[in-house]
Structures are given as structure tokens and as C-alpha cells.
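re: that chain from earlier
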Amino acid sequence: MRSWRVAVTLVAVLLFGFIGTVAGPGWNPHPLERTLVVQTSDVEIGGDVATTPVGTYETRTETFTVELDGATVEATVHEPVGAPDRRPGLVFMHGAGTATHDNFWQLTEALASAGIVSLVPDKRLDTYSARFRDYPAMARDYMHSWEALSSWPGVDPERVGFYAESEGAFIAPVAAAENPEVASVVLVSAPVVPAREQFALATDTYLRALGAPEQLLRAVPRLLGSEVPGGGFYYADFDVSPYQQRMDQPVLMVYGTEDVSMPVVQAPAKVIDDLAVAGNDDYTLRYFEGANHGIRIEDELAPGFPEAVARWVQGLPETADAQPRIAGGQPDQRFRAEPLDSPRWYASGDMIVFTLVGAVGLLLLGPTLWLLTRLVRRPSEPLPSPLARTTAALTMSVLAVWVLFASYLLVVAGLALNYERSPFVVQGGWLGIQAVAVGSTAIGVWSATTWLRVRRHGVRTGTVGTITLVGTHVGALVLLLAAGYWGIFPTIG
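^ sequence. v structure.
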């Protein structure tokens, strides 16, 4: 009997691993063949035009209210003291998440000291959530701030542009394409590709840097390619290219070479190609060596970053095509950001939730019924001792697999976001989860065979006991199948 159980366990483990291999979608990102070669490591903006250096003027700030369509936001203006009139201006667009008019303070103060007036509005939050975002509508909101800055005393309305960081780079091209009066666009750490593709590339890059197992890499399209339970998140597939292909404004693109979350080569190359469709060759690209997504090195703005932005903005139109066009540190992007295949119907977002919740409900159905019968003082007939032990062990072991898997994902995400590495945690933790999954399968076989033996001997389990046995074994099987889909079991090939 024992050898038979071992054989069945081995077959089950191989089956679950096979499911993880063939269920799909697969994950095989293609290497990025295109390169952007920097012309010099010097990030200074070239050209003969004279511009005012950072640190020339004292600065002042003023906070006021900007009227939007159906809402108001607070905004802060940073401006130079004593600078001549007809000054250039920049309206700042925030990245993802909540943000206020107190953001970008260090950069806007530096720009103001060079004679540039900056306006930073609060992000409008009544129409912005994790599930729903409308980038064209957000562009219309930011245009109200653009109009406010254009009418600001001392500002030249023909020299007011946008500074857009990260997610804001999905919005600025919309505003610029729809409003030709926008003078210029600065795109900082711009994803350019749809957010779903960028998320997948970032996740893959983080996991590879951590030395994550291949099974975990295969989970990338299964997680990010699926529709989110309950709907929403449609902005993840927003394509900004049609708007970039209508932009005639000069564009400055800025990236940090240590920003592993963005397609630092593919994205600016796409912007250059899109601008060419509009007949626009006015682009400048700067890579700051050692800088992260926020163009910072150890919490400080990268050296030369404020100076480059200030000179480029002030020197327009002469600096729009000044040499060198591409400069700074040499970027590195190994794989392309590409569209993800969608999981099949049985692994859609809603089905994932239904499967996991339903399976856990089956596991807990029996204990819940036992508790209810005791509350009404009609306790059910207890399960035979061996069967009670095996079903309890099966329930706890299967739940342990998923608790450990969820905990492992949280730990790995924490390591990735903090740019830390721990091979013991990443590799050892994964092997530990797989060992628990294999052990849970063995317990399941043990419990099922014990149930069959009890039935052959004619031992009664009662109504509640039978429901408990069916719920436990079916729920455990579903959770183990799901674990196989997510690659928790050793895969084949």
C-alpha cells in the first residue's frame, strides 16, 4: 500500500507540474535588437544660445486655486525674483499615485533660480483611482493649469510647456497634440509603451535581477495578461503613440540608467519614431548615469539634471535640435516590452478569484457544519480517528501552500522594490514552497486512500462527515491544480 501511495503521489506531482508547463500563456520575451548609442557622456545641452544658469536668482512661491471642470485644485508657482519679463514656464504633471502641489520642490526651485516659472498643481483625485483613469480627461484638467501659468505676470504665454514624469508622460502628449499652443514637452522616465507591457517588463527585469526561478517568470503573463477581477484598469492598455504622432513641439526626454522599471531604450526610440510621423525632428535625449526612476542618486537630484532642463527650456527654439542629441550614460535594456497573451477563460481574473474563494470555502464547509451542529446541540457523528487526522492534515497543508506562496511573493516584491538581493530567500524560499506542495499532495493521496479503506470496511461517516470529506478533498484538489497552474510544482521543460 505504501509503495502504491508513493507512485500515485509521484504521478500527481508530475501532472500538476505538467499543467504549469502547458496551461499557458507562455513567457518568452524577445531580446531588444535596437540600440541608442550616446554621443558623449556629457549631459550638458549644446548650442551657442546664451541662457541663465541655475542659481542666478532668488526665488519665491505662491499657492492659489485652479478651477477645473467640476473641481478645484491647489497649485504652487515657483518663480524668480527680479528676472526680466517674458519668462518661459513649465506646468508639472505627476506620476502615478497621489501627489500634491508640494511635489517637485527641489527641481522647481532650481528652475526658478534660472529664470523659469513652474506651476505644480495637486493631482485631481475625485476622477483618479487604482481601477479607473482617463488620460485625455486628465490632459484637459492640466490645460487649466497651463492657462493659469500662461496668464501669470511676467510669463511669456508662447513659451509655456509641460514637464511630465512617469505616468504623466501618458498625459502630456495628449495635451500637446490637442493644443498646439503648448510650447514644449519634457518627458521624464516615460513608459511610452502601454502600462501593461511596461509592468510586465519591469516585473521580468526585477525577477531576473533577483535570480527568481523560471516558474515564477512564467507567472508574469498569467498575472498581468489577465483582466482584473471586477473590471476596470482599462488604462493599462492606453496607447499614447497616436498622440505623439501629432506632436509638433520640441521634446526633451530624460532617463536614469538605473531605472529598471522603464524600457529606457525602446521608449525614447518609439518617441523619436512617432515624432518623425509628424515631421518633427526636434528631440533631445539625456541619460543620467546611476540615476533611478526619479532621476535621483541617493535621494538627491542627479548632477546636471536641473541644469540640463533649465538650459533646454530657456534656449528654445535653438536648443530643440542642438547637438549632441543623445548623451549621458549608456542605457541597457535586454528585452523588449511587448503585448502579453491573455490567459484562457479558466484563468481569467474573475475565475481566479472564484476558484480560490470557492476552493477555500469547500475546505471550511465541513468544520463550519460541525460547529453549527454543536451550537444547536445536535452534534454530528464524529469521523473515524484516522480519517479525521488525514482530512485535518490535508486542509492545513493545502492552506499552508497558498499562505507561503502569498508571503513569498510579498517578500520578493519587497526585495525588488528596495533593489536588494537574497539568493537564500529567493531560491531557498521557492524550494521550500515546492516541498510543502509536494508534501501536501502526498497527504492528499494518504487521506483519499484512507477514506476508501474506511468505506470498504463499511464504517459510517454520517451526513456532515461525508460533506466534510467531499468538501475537503475537492477543495484541496482544486487548490493543488491552481498551484500547478501558477508553477508552484516542479515544471516539465
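The mean pLDDT is 92.
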